[in-house]
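Table S2 (text version). Query chain:
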Amino acid sequence: MTALFALATAVLWGLADFGGGLLTRRIPALTVVVVSQVVAVLVLGTIVIATGAWRETGPQLWFAVGAGLVGPAAMLAFYKALALGPMGVVSPLGSIGVVVPVGAGLALGERPGAGQVAGIAVALVGIVLAGGPELRGAPVQRQAVVLTLLAAFGFGAVMALIAQASTTLTGLFLALFVQRVTNVAVGGAALWAQVRRGTPALPEGTGARLLWSLLPALAFVGLADVAANGTYSVAAQNGPVTVAAVLSSLYPVVTAFAAFAVLRERLRGIQAAGAGLALAGTVLLAAG
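Corresponding structure-token output:
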């Protein structure tokens, strides 16, 4: 079950990142974050009311608040990096933050077996290689790398926090709702401050019409991200966090393949080899 839900997380995060990166090329990254999370709040709020999940309020929700504080900054940095591109390079680097939940799992006493240790090592090497050799180059590329690394450790912190925010399915709905409300509060405040400084939230002229036309895509990004957080939490609660975190961090492979299929971005040989190693590590982890 851990492997299944963790791989589902990778697919959902990979597609959400691809969609968010595309949207950021048309409207500001902070607007993408806020609007997509507002949609998620509305859907999750309905689920919380329908299931009575609000009855499970407790101190564990502070973990969800923490995830909600870190998440918008990480998403903003990552979407900006994806807009600078190329996605097939930026996205793999974003998974380096897996060291945060893996480290947390080890600190809590988890001791994966020999096969799982090998799988973790192979997968991590593959993820790094999938980033390709483009750490040198133009200033724009270096800026994308810095933003991606900041986002990576933010995502890792979110993974570690959300895994501690609930112990039941309905509790998970409530935790995700609290996380997204915090996301919207933090992101909305940042967007308001940005507009006050003179930076528009939408492109001049056709901004409102453009936002309306992009609303389905924004909703997909927000809901896919929420679903990924949910499946990751289930994976982490039903198996070793070290395994769940590494398998979930294969999402860059999904983003890279989506970029190849839709944008025709070509992967370098080292990136393709990295993707292959990441998949091989997945097999080892699942078998372990």
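Notes on Table S2: Residues 207-237 form the longest helix (31 residues). Residues 134-140 have pLDDT under 50 and may be disordered.
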